[in-house]
Design brief:
heterotrimer, A alpha/beta (280), B alpha/beta (286), C mainly alpha (334), A: 280 residues, alpha/beta, Rossmann fold, 2 domains, 11 helices, globular, C: 334 residues, mainly alpha, ABC transporter involved in vitamin B12 uptake, BtuC, 75% helix, transport (chain C), transmembrane (chain C), Iron complex transport system permease protein (chain C)
Chain lengths: 280, 286, 334
């Protein structure tokens, strides 16, 4: 919006260590406008760490992140926030704000004040509320919402930022199927002009909506490609340790987890099926 | 009146000692300390309290240097092998009870609460200390001084006497019934705080509205910060009572009246004379 | 939207009117009967009189200090709660006021005030900053109520004990009473000199706190989200902590530590602020001024002769409140 250079998010050789533990190991990829990227991997794979590093909240131990070709730490925080927004995995509100006020928090990078956002940007907030299908909750306080309703309100908060890049950490985990589809569709629409990277656990939805999948395991980027390229039975077996049936249809890919695998069942070769780990 | 009984008992208690050996006196009360330091032979004093060398609390602090100081603990006192342990009427209860139980001679000396008690107190101390001549002379001076003041006061109508307020730390002032009140009256004042019984807090607003002719404060206020004296810096008080109407009394005099009663009375009489002059010259009539 | 704005303005207006009323009452009522009009006309005419002195030199500084100190404590309480995301945070309860008292005691009783008037509030500010920093380091990351309260208990006792130690070393004959002042607080017999110390310090502190109102709003959703909304946490927190330290330190330096104001006021006014931490700041300042002024009026009239300490009254109101919050709190204890 404020920048004339084309939208891009690029990282290379990212490492993030806490003590002796490496949470990110040599992660690198580039993304631009028009992409809806699904970030998948088992619990503890490093998805949240990667998103927080990309959002500039955590400085990497090594490597760099470039936002619109400018190094992330060089961005003034407020300008960065206007370009890149994050929906954190945990955003439990400490106070019983109204839903409208919570969504208005997304306007802080632009207005610098909640009162100003509420007073002057009512239309934009209404749009975000409607988009996340929570307009009917607008005057409720957030402590009266169910988990799913709260997550949608938080999505509306993300939408209200109207940043070019959205990083969403498990945006649909607590939602019912209808709203899962609804939010995924919204993210996809956003990705037509912007860039969306979402950490997801629902592989079928990831396969259906995302046009690119990043598969992570133990801090490493294992595979990067289209859903068909990444979501193979071998990859799922090695990374998730499940026997899964991957069905390809006209709609896309659907994945059905069938049984957990024991150590002896796991494929022996490590990178034989990772022809797609190629950056772009 | 004069009785040598305690002295005889004392000698009996220390039969094994040579008769030239001094009595071993231990005081566990600051005011008794002062009496000892002033009137007892130094060799007779085995121990005084640890307040005794604090110049803010005792005018005889310098005399206490070099003497054993106790904190009123039995385990400190026993090694001193005291002949007599002297205590006030109320303080050091546990210690004195235990010492009595252990067979030590404990003497409780009630401290004066009224001017009328002072004479009895001086007599009692004289008895315990073996009738030192200095103490007898001191008592004589006091009786004469008192009588002279009473005669002088009878000449002056009550309304002609200046009103004085003795303002202690934390703006507490002595009211009716206190020894300090009687002392003010004896010195020729009316007590500003006579309406209130005992010691009570003085309200700044009342003080500003009806200021006394003289405000008597203790000099400890000068060198050490304390909230207790902070009110003396208050602009409203300074506006109501000019600096020439503030008199300073060494704080260590008032802590124990009996050993300092003549000095106290003289100091107050001097202040009274100065304020009475001020009234006649300055024409400030209240 | 406009109704909301009107509603807020009405609330500010209402609180301000009550505040002015209380101010008028505290100038009118006192230990002695004095006509405020007589005092005013004496002041106008330039006459020196007892009524003028009582109203302008005794009652006015006391009332002004109640307003300044109360506003600082109220806003600091709201800011600490927002910063720690915990409604039980409060400068008095968590030892921040005791830290300020320690700073003040050291300068006053060891003669450092001779270096200039600034030394006293500066030392009080340093004291409260140290305590704040310790609280933040101990409990800032944890959402646990228990950790916060235990840290507060420990710091409060520590700084209270250090005040006692400092007063003992100061060889002050009245140490016992003075410890009570520093830990319970009082506005008795304060003068304009004290106002001149507290006013700039507290106002600067409150301005610093208020300038960070948007960050406190953003913190509603946690550190990560607040940072992602364009706030640099280090700078924002440093300014907030400095602001709280100034507002608390300036007040404690002249009035001792008055507890629970920063707890009661933000809690009562939070619904009025629609639970928005930023909006709560100014309301809490007004409310704190009201509470301390009211409590001081109570103190002055309960017993003229033996004045109760102000902190005793606020603790009598605040401690049951604290327990109530602890019991009804929806958050986990551990």
């Amino acid at each position: 919006m404020t920048n004339t250079t084309p939208l891009s998010l690029h990282c290379e050789a990212l490492h993030y260590r806490v003590g002796a533990r490496a949470l990110l190991k040599n992660v690198g990829f580039s993304a631009g406008a028009g992409q809806f990227i699904g970030l998948i991997g088992p619990n503890g794979a490093g998805k949240s760490t990667l998103l927080k590093t990309l959002a500039g909240l955590w400085a990497p131990s090594a490597g760099k992140v470039l936002l619109n070709q400018q190094s992330l730490p060089e961005w003034p925080p407020r300008a960065r926030a206007k370009t890149l927004a994050l929906l954190a995995q945990q955003e439990a509100p400490a106070w019983s704000l109204s839903v409208r006020a919570l969504v208005a928090l997304g306007r802080l990078p632009h207005t610098g004040s909640l009162a100003v956002a509420l007073a002057r940007e009512g239309n934009l907030i209404d749009l975000a509320l409607t988009a996340a299908d929570v307009a009917h909750l607008a005057e409720r306080t957030v402590d009266t919402l169910s988990g799913g309703e709260l997550r949608r309100v938080q999505c509306a908060r993300l939408f209200a930022t109207v940043a070019d890049i959205w990083l969403a950490d498990e945006p649909i985990a607590a939602l019912d199927p209808l709203h899962q589809l609804h939010i995924m569709q919204l993210l996809k629409t956003k990705a037509e002009t912007g860039l969306v990277i979402a950490a997801l656990h629902d592989l079928t939805l990831a396969a259906r909506f995302c046009d690119r999948i990043l598969l992570m395991n133990d801090g490493e980027l294992i595979a990067d490609g289209t859903p068909t390229q990444v979501l193979t039975e071998d990859n799922l077996a090695r990374v998730y340790r499940i026997r899964a049936q991957v069905q390809h249809s006209a709609d896309g890919v659907s994945i059905v987890a069938q049984a957990p695998l024991t150590q002896s069942d796991l494929p022996t070769t490590t990178h034989a099926h990772n022809a797609n780990l190629s950056g772009q | 009146m004069r009785s040598h009984y305690p002295l005889i008992a004392l000698c009996a208690l220390s039969l094994w000692l040579s008769s030239a050996q001094a009595a071993r006196l231990v005081s566990v009360n600051l005011c008794v300390d002062q009496m000892l330091l002033r009137f007892a032979a130094r060799d007779d004093i085995a121990s005084v309290t640890y307040f005794a060398n604090n110049p803010a609390m005792s005018p005889y602090a310098a005399d206490a240097q070099g003497l054993h100081r106790n904190h009123g603990l039995v385990e400190e006192i026993i090694p001193l092998a005291p002949d007599v342990v002297l205590a006030g009427a109320y303080g050091a209860r546990q210690a004195t009870a235990l010492l009595s139980q252990l067979g030590y001679r404990v003497e409780r000396v009630p401290l004066p609460e009224k001017l009328a008690d002072i004479d009895a107190h001086l007599l009692r101390m004289a008895e315990l200390l073996g009738e030192p001549a200095a103490l007898q002379a001191y008592r004589q001076t006091w009786l004469e001084h008192k009588k002279a003041r009473e005669t002088a006061n009878a000449q002056v109508p009550d309304s002609a006497r200046p009103r004085a307020l003795m303002l202690g730390p934390n703006h507490i002032a002595p009211g009716a019934g206190t020894l300090e009140h009687e002392l003010l009256v004896l010195a020729g004042f009316r007590n500003w705080a006579a309406d209130q019984p005992g010691f009570a807090t003085v309200n700044l607003e009342q003080l500003v509205q009806q200021p006394p002719d003289v405000l008597i404060v203790d000099v400890a206020a000068d060198h050490q910060f304390s909230l207790a004296h902070e009110v003396l810096q208050h602009p409203a008080l300074n506006a109501a009572i000019g600096p020439q109407r503030v008199a300073r009394l060494p704080s260590n005099l008032a802590v124990c009246p009996a050993p300092n009663i003549n000095t106290l009375l003289s100091a107050l009489v001097a202040i009274q004379a100065r304020i009475a002059d001020l009234a006649t010259i300055g024409g400030v009539s209240r | 939207m406009h109704d909301l704005a009107k509603e807020i303005t009405l609330k500010y207006l209402g609180l301000s009117v009550v505040l002015v009323l209380l101010l008028a009452i505290s100038l009118t009522l006192g230990a002695v009967d004095v006509s405020v009009w007589a005092a005013l006309s004496d002041a106008w005419a330039g006459d020196v009189s007892a009524s003028r002195s009582i109203v302008f030199d005794v009652r006015l500084p006391r009332a002004l200090l109640a307003v300044i100190v109360g506003a600082g404590l109220g806003m600091s309480g709201a800011a600490m709660q927002g910063l720690l995301r915990n409604p039980l945070a409060e400068p008095g309860v968590l030892g921040v006021s005791a830290g300020a008292a320690l700073g003040a005691v050291i300068t006053l009783y060891f003669g450092f005030t001779a270096w200039g008037w600034l030394v006293l509030p500066a030392a009080a500010m340093v004291g409260s900053f140290v305590a704040l920093f310790a609280i933040y380091a101990l409990a800032g990351r944890s959402q646990s109520v228990l950790v916060l309260i235990l840290a507060g208990v420990a710091l409060n006792s520590l700084f209270g004990a250090l005040v006692a130690v400092a007063l003992n070393f100061a060889d002050n004959m009245f140490a016992l009473q003075e410890i009570i002042f520093w830990l319970m607080g009082s506005l008795a017999n304060r003068s304009m000199d004290h106002v001149m110390i507290a006013l700039p310090t507290c106002v600067l502190g409150m301005a610093l706190i208020y300038s960070r109102h948007a960050y406190l709003d953003a913190l509603t959703l946690g550190d990560d989200t607040a940072n992602s909304l364009g706030f640099s946490a280090g700078r924002e927190r440093a300014m907030l902590l400095a602001g709280i330290a100034l507002a608390v330190g300036g007040g404690v330096a002249v009035a001792g530590s008055i507890g629970f104001v920063g707890l009661i006021v933000p809690h009562l006014l939070r619904p009025w602020a629609q639970h928005q931490p930023g909006k709560l700041l100014l309301l809490s300042a007004l409310g704190g001024a009201l509470l301390v002024l009211g409590a001081d009026l109570l103190v002055r009239h309960l017993d003229v002769a033996r004045e109760l300490k102000l902190g005793v009254v606020t603790a009598l109101l605040g401690a049951p409140f604290f327990i109530y919050l602890l019991i009804t709190g929806k958050r986990r204890l551990i």
